[in-house]
Design goal:
With about 210 residues, the protein is of the alpha/beta class. It has eight helices and five strands; from the N terminus they run E-H-E-H-H-E-H-H-E-H-H-E-H. It has a five-stranded parallel beta sheet with strand order 2-3-1-4-5, sandwiched between helices. The longest helix is centred in the middle third of the chain and has 25 residues. InterPro entries: P-loop_NTPase (IPR027417), Thymidylate_kin-like_dom (IPR039430), Thymidylate_kinase (IPR018094).
């Protein structure tokens, strides 16, 4: 369902990924503004979430105890609603969708962090998404130790953010595996650098794609 983009009339799907504390939220607003300045009609959204139903599921995922399979099923249920209600309609009308996390996060967190069988996640991915993937994924990558320092200084931890460094090292490895499997879609951003340096990396990725 995803296809190369050569016209402003064809929607672009950009996902922003990375472990908690990678600094994604710092750059999403500026990236959205940058794309709008270049003529894009941008829809900003997030996962888990993006629709009333998916936002309800987000609350359960972040604050209620459950096993990894229940987590994955809730994530994909919310994603299905998100795709049908927000993402696909926006792309069909030529808009740019800027999504804070998508399926790569599920493979990283439930697959890498929780240790779920990747074949189960892959089956759910195909069933729910029917081939839909982002056109570009900006992966904000940094060591788990640095991310933990940033989280501690920024906010109260949710159920995922309370996990130990071993968990987040596994999540980071999960992202690395997804990036290795889709090198043309992924662009690694060194998120350990300054805000200005990270912004420059994002700009370079956009310019390389003619966006």
């Amino acid at each position: 369902m995803s296809s190369p983009l050569s016209s402003k009339n064809i929607g672009r799907f950009i996902s922003i990924e990375g472990i908690d504390g990678a600094g994604k939220s710092t750059h999403i607003a500026s990236l959205s503004a940058r794309l709008q300045q270049r003529g894009a009609d941008v829809v900003n959204t997030r996962e888990p979430g993006g629709t009333p139903l998916a936002e309800t599921l987000r609350g359960l995922l972040l604050h209620s105890g459950m096993d990894e399979l229940t987590e994955a099923l809730l994530v994909f249920a919310g994603r299905r609603d998100h795709l049908r209600q927000v993402i696909e309609p926006a792309l069909s009308s030529g808009k740019t969708v800027l999504c804070d996390r998508f399926t790569d996060a599920t493979f990283a967190y439930q697959g890498g962090g929780r240790g779920m069988e990747l074949s189960v996640l892959a089956a759910l991915e195909q069933w729910v998404q029917q081939g839909r993937q982002p056109d570009l994924t900006l992966w904000f990558d940094l060591p788990a130790e640095l991310a933990a320092q940033r989280r501690a200084a920024a906010r109260e931890a949710d159920r995922f953010e309370q996990q130990d460094l071993e968990f987040f090292n596994k999540v980071r490895a999960g992202y690395a595996a997804r990036a290795a499997a889709a090198p043309t879609r992924f662009a690694r951003i060194d998120a350990s650098l300054s805000v200005e340096a990270v912004s420059a990396q994002i700009e370079a990725v956009l310019e390389a794609r003619g966006w």
